[in-house]
Amino acid sequence: MKIEEMNRSACCGCESCANVCPQNCIIMTQDAEGFFYPKINYEKCIKCGRCESVCPSLNAREIPVKTLPIILLAINPDEKIRRHSSSGGAFTALSEKILNDGGIIFGAGFDENWHVKHMAAENFDALENLRGSKYVQSRIGNIFKSVKAEVESGRKVLFSGTPCQCAGLKNFLGKDFENLLTVGVMCHGVPSPLLWESYIEWRGRGHEISRVNFRSKRFGWLNFQLEITFKDCGYYSKPNMQDFYIQEFLLNTILRPSCSACQFRFPNLNCDILLGDAWGIQNFAPEVTDNRGTSIIVVNNNNGLDYLKKARLEVKFLDLNALIYQPFFFIPTPADERRKNFFDDLAKTNLPINVMQKYFLQNPAPVSSMNNKKTQEKFWARLKELGFTK
Ligand SMILES: Cc1cc2nc3c(=O)[nH]c(=O)nc-3n(C[C@H](O)[C@H](O)[C@H](O)COP(=O)(O)OP(=O)(O)OC[C@H]3O[C@@H](n4cnc5c(N)ncnc54)[C@H](O)[C@@H]3O)c2cc1C
Ligand code: SF4
Ligand code: SF4
Ligand code: SF4
Fold first, then answer.
1. 191 lines ligand 1 (CB under 6 A)
2. Shortest CA distance to 186 belongs to which of 235, 228, 133, 142?
3. Are residues 225 and 357 in the same domain?
4. What pLDDT is recorded for position 13?
5. Ligand 4 center to residue 230 CA distance, Å?
């Protein structure tokens, strides 16, 4: 089947194929880099072709740009929620209304081993685990089947994930539902679960972890820290570029191969609403800059707009220029030139921590994608292709 023949940079690992298979004969298996890909048990396969028909990578096509999306800045008026959210807390505001209406939220949370998986939240306590970005590819498991059962029952559902996961879900469902809100994150790429799981196990070493926060705002939103709290002995906290896992994530060394060929950039977002960090806000909206975290929201359709209108958020409308600080909204993230060597080294050892530490640069160049001339050229070329001018 074509889903197994695709090259590594095509399959985004959304698990739509595994969810749809009527024979349950697709399992997701981990490769040497630590990413998951489908594997078919041909003894059970009936060659129905459903896995191919739902695959968002095999069926990706350019959605024509009819109108510009609505772009807004947003903050959650609840200071505590905003503090515990990665950006401005837009995700929680959108979820709140759905939970109050008896609905259910699906998103990425931690399991008991701090591995990242998609799971459901049916109340505000459970929602806490879904709040906050987790910088690793989240496993979908059977979640698309659960989403389907809930939307078909008529319940309000919010599904949140990367745009490729939203695309996989959309194809799996096969039609739109008014009672489903899909919320994508403005994703530049996802690191390997093998590396995150090795990292967190090593960081824990004999101490029980009570909280992991990839985006602690202890020293402000712009200087976010990875923070790991231990039950018995305080916490570990490091500015993002001083932690070897986060640094390799931000330098794009450890991302999934499909991320540098991402087919889910604007206009192929496949979600009703897209949420990101309002990076560059000090340049386009200095009057609302407070370093406590602000979301940028892209509303792609009327369904998204209907749900957004009901969310408890303070908003400000923006024009397209605000997206100049989000190059990867339009173009795939280029992989770091050290990526190949990194994973070649990983293949030679069973000590991923040593490899991450080896590649850890003490004084790396600042991570500003917009400073990169090549990225800027690609960004403007893509905008021109889509019919926008400088
Ligand atoms: C891997 C990744 C890369 C990102 N890269 C960028 C970027 O380059 N630029 C940018 O502006 N924004 C990026 N974001 C989005 C940003 O970090 C925030 O998630 C987003 O702005 C929402 O913030 P919030 O304050 O509204 O809500 P929060 O409560 O902080 O957001 C939580 C939401 O994110 C979802 N989520 C968390 N981790 C994952 C995951 N691993 N996979 C799928 N969904 C997840 C949860 O399901 C939940 O819905 C990225 C997010 C992720 C997960
Ligand atoms: S062709 Fe049908 S039965 Fe075979 S793996 Fe794909 S979905 Fe499953
Ligand atoms: S459906 Fe998703 S996981 Fe399956 S082959 Fe396609 S991209 Fe890969
Ligand atoms: S960058 Fe693209 S392919 Fe990679 S996880 Fe994000 S949406 Fe999926």
1. no
2. 133
3. yes
4. 98
5. 31
Check residue 258 and report its DSSP letter.
G
- The percent of residues in the chain predicted with pLDDT above 90, rounded, is 82
Q: From the CA of 127, how far away is ligand 2's center (Å)? A: 34
Tell me: do 115 and 199 sit in the same domain: yes
C-beta 163 within 6 A of ligand 1:
no
Which structural domain range is residue 168 located in?
65-390
DSSP labels, 157-222: EEEEE-HHHHHHHHHHH-S--TTEEEEEE--S--B-HHHHHHHHHHHHTTS-EEEEEEEE-TT-ST
To the nearest whole number, what is the mean pLDDT of the chain?
Answer: 93
Cβ–ligand 1 distance for 184 under 6 Å, the answer no
Please tell me the residue having the least CA distance from ligand 2 atom 6: 51
Same domain (yes/no): 95, 160: yes
122/252 Cα distance (integer angstroms): 34
Q: What is the pLDDT of residues 158-206, one digit of tens each?
A: 999 999 999 999 999 999 999 999 999 999 999 999 999 999 999 999 8
Nearest-atom number in ligand 1 for the CA of 191 is 1
Smallest-distance ligand from the CA of 331: 4
Q: Within this chain, do residues 127 and 45 fall inside the same structural domain, yes or no?
A: no
The three-point CA angle 201-207-209 to 5° equals 70
- Ligand 4 neighbours (beta carbon < 6 A): 12, 162-164, 187, 189-190, 256, 258-259, 262, 264
Report DSSP state, residue 102: T
Of 365, 358, 362, 354, which is closest to residue 242 (Cα–Cα)? 362
Residue 280 scores a pLDDT above 80: yes
Atom from ligand 1 closest to the CA of residue 277: 11
Nearest ligand to the CA atom of 96: 1
Domain presence at residue 233 = yes
Give yes or no: residues 134 and 188 share one domain. Answer: yes
Domain contains 60: no
Q: State which H helix or E strand residue 130 sits in.
A: helix 124-130
Number of domains in the chain: 2
* H or E element, residue 111: none
Q: Would the CA dihedral through 139, 142, 143, 145 be positive or negative?
A: positive
What's the first-to-final CA gap in the chain, in angstroms? 44
22: domain CATH number? 3.30.70.20
Are 126 and 261 in a shared domain? yes
Angle in degrees, 0-180, between the axes of helices 352-359 and 339-347, rounded to the nearest 10: 150
